[in-house]
């Protein structure tokens, strides 16, 4: 799969590097969607709740907070998935440090999820009580 795309860092710099970098990023999104159920779940939730952000936000800053916490959750899930993929490739058997790295990645996703829940819950509460 990676053999199709030459190393971005070799022989290309500046703005000419950008199309290849974008292609690699799109392949990353495709891999996340194809192989990571958590990413799919969070993305579907984000798509479903995002329209509500236009109604419950009180300002542009508030809207960015509502959308930003969802994007941050997706970011955390992508990074966690990358940690898990590299860990499984390097150490297919159990390794204590790899287990710790995976647990830390999972904790990062959980932290992002809690942040999103709190921001959305407070925003919805304020929308219906004010």
From TrEMBL:
Catalysed reactions, semicolon-separated: a 1,2-diacyl-sn-glycerol + ATP = a 1,2-diacyl-sn-glycero-3-phosphate + ADP + H(+)
Binding site for ATP: 17, 36, 84, 102-103
Membrane topology field: Multi-pass membrane protein
Keyword terms of this UniProt record: ATP-binding, Cell inner membrane, Cell membrane, Kinase, Lipid biosynthesis, Lipid metabolism, Magnesium, Membrane, Metal-binding, Nucleotide-binding, Phospholipid biosynthesis, Phospholipid metabolism, Transferase, Transmembrane, Transmembrane helix
Active site: 77 (proton acceptor)
Enzyme class, first EC level, given as a word: transferase
Domain of life of the source: Bacteria
Molecular-function GO terms, alphabetical: ATP binding; ATP-dependent diacylglycerol kinase activity; metal ion binding
Segments forming a coiled coil: none
Pfam families referenced in this protein's UniProt entry, alphabetically: DAGK_prokar
Cofactor(s) needed by this chain: Mg(2+)
InterPro entries reported in the protein's UniProt record: DAGK, DAGK_prok, DAGK_sf
Location in or out of the cell: Cell inner membrane
Binding site for substrate: 17, 77, 106
Ranges annotated as spanning the membrane: 39-57, 63-83, 104-125
Any single biological process term in GO: phosphatidic acid biosynthetic process
Cofactor note: Mn(2+), Zn(2+), Cd(2+) and Co(2+) support activity to lesser extents.
Cellular-component GO terms for this entry: plasma membrane
EC number: 2.7.1.107
Residues that, per the record, bind a divalent metal cation: 36, 84
Biological function: Catalyzes the ATP-dependent phosphorylation of sn-l,2-diacylglycerol (DAG) to phosphatidic acid. Involved in the recycling of diacylglycerol produced as a by-product during membrane-derived oligosaccharide (MDO) biosynthesis.
Entry similarity comment: Belongs to the bacterial diacylglycerol kinase family.
Name of the protein in question: Diacylglycerol kinase
Gene: dgkA
């Amino acid at each position: 799969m990676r053999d199709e795309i030459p190393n971005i860092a070799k022989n290309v710099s500046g703005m000419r590097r950008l199309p290849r970098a974008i292609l690699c990023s799109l392949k990353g999104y495709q891999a996340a969607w194809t192989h990571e159920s958590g990413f799919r779940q969070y993305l579907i939730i984000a798509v479903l709740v995002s329209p509500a952000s236009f109604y419950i936000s009180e300002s542009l800053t508030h809207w960015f907070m509502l959308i930003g916490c969802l994007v941050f959750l997706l970011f955390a899930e992508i990074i966690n998935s990358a940690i898990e993929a590299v860990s499984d490739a390097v150490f297919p058997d159990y390794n204590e440090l790899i287990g710790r790295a995976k647990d830390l990645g999972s904790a990062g996703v959980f932290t992002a999820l809690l942040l999103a829940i709190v921001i959305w819950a407070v925003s919805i509460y304020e929308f219906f009580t004010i």
